[in-house]
Amino acid sequence: LSLHSDCDLFFINFIIVPGIMELLIFDYLTKTLVYSSILATFIYLYFSWCYGHWKRRNFPFLKPNFPKGNNPTYLARFPGPHLECRDHYLEIRKRGLKFAGIFSVIHPVLVVVDPVIIKDILVKDFEHFVDRGFYSSENDPLSVSLLSMGGDKWKNSRGKLTNFFTIGKVKMLIPLMVGSAKPMVRSIGECALNNTDINITLLTKRYAAETVGTCFLGIDCNNFGDAEDTFANMVGKFFRDQNFTHLLRVSCTNRFPALSRKVGLKLILSEVSEFFKSAVRDTLKYREEHNYFRPDVLQLLINLKKEMENTSDPITEEQVAAHIFSFFVAGIDTIADLMTFTLYELCRNPDIQERVREEIMDIMKKHKNEFTPECLNDMKYLRQVISETLRIYPGLPSLERECVKDYKINGTNLTIEKGTTVWISIMGIHRDPEYHTDPEKFDPDRFIEDSAKSYSQFYFPFGLGPRMCIGVRFGLTVAQIGLIKILREHRMSLSDETCTPLKLNKQSFLLETLEPLLMRAE
């Protein structure tokens, strides 16, 4: 009996059980393989159907590649990185087309390259393309700003905020801009004295952050210190955080905005959001408790907030914070990059730099060393230099618009449907040899008054139409004052450590160098 029992146990444990397990595993693997194949087939067929979007509508299009579409290195639905958008522009121009469809993964995007159609979209028929298509959510208060608002909400807010950027208001802020430049010039002077390299990328960002901080928020932002929680660093985290979770959040909020709002997904990092809300909250509290008044943008927002307290659309403290945040986001990097690229080109073209420096000396002497709108306006050659910098390195390398109602493209039988995303490569147009002779050459004389008129149709570094950057006058004034302060004191040159030609950051939302730009001053 014992022998039979042992045999039975052996048979059960080593023959039957393993056999059953093998069958179960085989069955599991077979089902997994079958289901995976079905899922993969479904995904492929779905992608293939999506990739037929432009063909079904008789639009010309660039052939997509599964599964990334026409954007091989980037998954978020933005008009960039800027170099990819420019590459699409070049390919479409090469084919002799005025526009063509592409796919950001599976999201259809229309890239328009014809200047006439671009002007129609941005200006003439603007009511069809009011929205930028940026994500905003009430659960993410700082995302609801002038940058991301659409429709009537944007129109009403822009009407109120435009008053903050008039010639008179900017003139009032000039002394604050001049004061903010002092730490930057002092740092450059110390490097010149010690014969050391200057990280001009870092210094211009700190100057821009300091100026935006004092002009908009009315506080000393301490951007020239070594603290990690400066305004410049916080804006940098918003733009440059390469953490996978953040990149996934950016991709989801822009590709599936409605779903993201339902689940409460936030675009702005909590750390960044709390930093700005706290800064605005503390400043508002201090001014209220001490009855403190300061001629800056925050004060104008406070006044507007009081005016609208008893209306149907009052301004909340969070909305004030959102607008301040948007000014920081839109201002710091564009101002700093403009200054950095201008100085880079002046270093590469010392004859142009000398001409600029001579003009600065003469005009400042003429105006008794006082910074006034008249003084800045008289520096015509410096303004030409800035304009040429913006041609080669536009503040907005590309634009995104969302069609809010069906639009028939002039001269065609094709209709851009409501909800379609449109991309425009400003960088592509600005460097197109058909519109700009020898486009890679830095030539400020393109913008001598008479010559500049012929470029106007092919030059729009901050956009065109009603949705053009609201703070252009402010930003250009800050950059001009910063450049005057530097070039009045120093002659700049490139460090031996600086690689030329410049390598641009292909993954950036903005146009910026891959590595910090190093210079020398004397």
Automatic annotation (TrEMBL):
SUPFAM superfamilies: Cytochrome P450. It is found in: Endoplasmic reticulum membrane; Microsome membrane. InterPro entries: Cyt_P450, Cyt_P450_CS, Cyt_P450_E_grp-I, Cyt_P450_sf, Insect_CytP450_Detox. Its cofactor is heme. Pfam families: p450. The chain crosses the membrane at residues 7-26, 32-54, 99-118. Coiled coil: none annotated. PANTHER family: CYTOCHROME P450, CYTOCHROME P450 6A16, ISOFORM B-RELATED. This is Cytochrome P450 6ee1. It comes from Leptinotarsa decemlineata. The gene is Cyp6ee1.
